[in-house]
Amino acid sequence: MANKNNTTLYTGVTSDLPKRVQQHKENYYQQSFTAKYNLHKLVYWESFQEIGDAIFREKQIKAGSR
């Protein structure tokens, strides 16, 4: 997820992408990182069959250069 200027990024793992994107857009968790920085735009996603593979990929993305 990103803000409207693509200057702040968030990465995470979910089993229900449409629902999670909607939660971000509605600031469902008002104290969350995405609510604080208005991260409402989905800019990239990947699909995995195994949760362990998704978590591994999330860690790769977070360790990379922005």
TrEMBL record:
Residues 1-66 form the GIY-YIG domain. SUPFAM superfamilies: GIY-YIG endonuclease. It comes from Chryseobacterium camelliae. Belongs to the UPF0213 family. Coiled coil: none annotated. Pfam families: GIY-YIG. It comes from the Bacteria. This is GIY-YIG nuclease family protein. PANTHER family: BSL5627 PROTEIN, UPF0213 PROTEIN YHBQ.
